[in-house]
Amino acid sequence: MNDTNVSSSVLDRLSEEWDALTPEAQKAARYVLENPTDVGVSTVREIAEAAKVKPNTFVRMARQVGFEGYDDFREPFRDAIRRGQVSFPDRARWLQSISRSGDLGGLYADMVGAAIRNLEDTFGGISAEDLKSAAEAIWNSRQVFTLGVGVNNANARNFTYLASTGMTQFHAIPRPGSVAVDDLAWADERDVLIAMTCRPYRTEVIETVKLARTQGMTIVGISDSPASPVVLSAHHGFVVAADTPQFFPSSVSTITLLETLLSFVIAVASDEIVERVAQFHKRRHQLGIYQEEPE
After folding, report:
1. 111 by DSSP, 3-state: which?
2. Are 118 and 215 within 8 A, CB to CB?
3. Which residues form the HTH rpiR-type domain (predicted)?
């Protein structure tokens, strides 16, 4: 059987009913047991062809193990894909199957539902005190380095850009043409590293966090599991939910957490920060960067 978490209860039912299945139904069941991720992305005709049986065989097999038909049988496998319990390629195939069926309305609902659940799950596990503690470490530091690669590189740079409207000690790494470990060459216990990575974890982020700890830096870790090496190594660890029907981990919770963390930094900062943000935006108006609204 493939190494997968997909619908183990359904697979167990197939195994339990094995002796009661006809030889043809056993061929269908064998294919499911050996290729469970195919079920969620395949029509009954497609999977029957792959298993070298007739489509009706899959229908009968599904009914024999307690389902109304193949579509009902397939739903737990599709749900596992939506919850991110299979590999990226399998989720991509599932998205394509949705598109072919014309069921983009269901995908729309799944995307929105996943985003809402991610936010609820993320902030349900984080307290205001957790955020305040991290924010105070950030505000009281000499420099703050925000590390993200891949999709999280954009998240790190967005956080740094927003922070720079009122503060000067923020740096997004790796810098262009550099590597993260070099960017921290002169960092020490006076500095903070905010590091983020979700599964599959990026080795360069993990190694940079390890190095930062040896240099005495304070680590704020953001990842999708309390067992993530980034969270385990952090002084302030935050777990974000990143489930999504698509095959890229969702950034919704990461972005929202970073925005919330920055708001806490501003909240614990000295009064001058508000004036600095106001001056920054006043300068932009003076330079004509913003389109002025008609009076």
Report:
1. helix
2. no
3. 8-84
- The residue assigned the tokens 């790494």 is 173
Q: Which two tokens stand for residue 193?
A: 């590293």
Euclidean distance between CA atoms 266 and 259, whole angstroms: 11
Question: 3-state class of 278 per DSSP?
Answer: helix
Q: Taking the model in full, what pTM does it have?
A: 0.67
Greatest Cα-to-Cα distance within the chain, rounded to the nearest angstrom? 80
Please count the other Cβ atoms lying within 10 Å of the Cβ belonging to residue 207: 13
Residues 6 or more apart whose CB falls under 8 angstroms from that of 131 comprise 260, 261, 264
- Bridge partners (DSSP) listed for residue 146: 172, 194
The CA distance from 96 to 42, in Å, is 10
- What residue type is assigned to position 247 of the chain? F
Phi, psi of 220 (to 5 degrees): -110, 115
What is the mean predicted confidence (pLDDT) over 49-65? 92
DSSP letter, residue 250: P
From residue 117, how far is each of 11, 108, 197 by CA, in Å?
27, 14, 20
Contact between 175 and 182 under an 8 Å Cβ cutoff? The reply is no
Taken in order of first residue, the domains within the chain and their CATH numbers are: 8-88 (1.10.10.10), 118-286 (3.40.50.10490)
pLDDT in tens, 152-206: 999 999 999 988 887 778 999 999 999 999 999 999 999 999 999 998 899 999 9
In angstroms, the CA 236 to CA 232 distance is: 9
